[in-house]
Fold these 2 entries.
Entry 1:
Amino acid sequence: MTRQSRARRRCVAVASVRARIVAVAATFLVAAGCGMLNDPVEERWESRTEFSSCGEVSLDQGEEMQKEAVREITCLQRALKSGGSAELKVIYPTVEGDPIREYYRLTPQGRLEVYTDSTDDRYSDRKWSFGECYTPEWLAEISCDR
């Protein structure tokens, strides 16, 4: 085998590897564009059974929910006391100003579910997250005793 034919084979092999990498990347992008790589927490949120709405709260930098969302928190508290169900959407900015969306769901069983959408936060994992607890300790803060 000549030096030139070995060089040609090496060149073909490198081109073949590059072509495979490009093909895998293209497949990944197509799959993402077709919704095949959806976030399972987001899918869970989207497919939920909707509860009655307690509204939506948009907080500005430094605003506190217990001061800005009294009516909405009261709505959740009424649902908790009556054994009902309710949902509340809260939007607040990160330190850098990116929006975080949290969805609070109070189920008829007294469970508080918290879905957090961080997809627009440049400095996060850009994913959804989920947490839950039974009988939240203090609904004004809408948090679970951990």
Entry 2:
Amino acid sequence: MRCMVRGFWGPRPEPVEVLAERWRQTLQGFAELVPQAADAWSQVHADGPATAITADRDALLGALHRARDASDWSDLTGVGLRLVGTRTPGWEAEVSGLAGGETEFVLQLLTVVLHAPDDAPVPEEDILALIARVWEPDFGDVSDDDVLDALEDEAGFSVADPTVGRAGYLSPARAALVPDDLEAVRQELPGGGLLLSIGAPGDTAAVVRACERLREAGALAPLPRPMDRPVL
């Protein structure tokens, strides 16, 4: 089984010290939620083989400094990392992100891709809540290829559009626009954001209905372009 948990936000310039702490909290929280997925991490590079990295603040800060100081880095874009974790056979995690930038046209993001045995329980919504707490995104989702294909083919969503998956996160301004008749279980998170439980794995129809209803209500309106803030 492969699932993807993501958070997106607009321009939010931050120093690498702040980003390193967000990364540390993410990896620590993920290890607590899915201990079987990763007890060792490797950093994937654009050139050359992956290298081992520990999930402590100093190691992450060093990795971010090196990414920031790369010849093609721009403070407009943000600083990217891609880490792969392994532990138990059949499990693998990839955590990647682009953050700290102030570009007006490209969303910042944090993505967790988790491979797990088909019959294994996966705390997808808890991972999404972790991303919401640590990264304070504008919106986020729990998704997979079938969900993304259904949203594109049946509801006309494109890659850049805000969406929710079988679970979703909406920042406070988006949460305030969620209609009362939306078929979803709601959980308010600290800070005023909203976690929505929409459908079980494989129930793409429920996801499509929810996204269409949220789009009608304005809760999935895109950030204005050029973007001038991190959240709606």
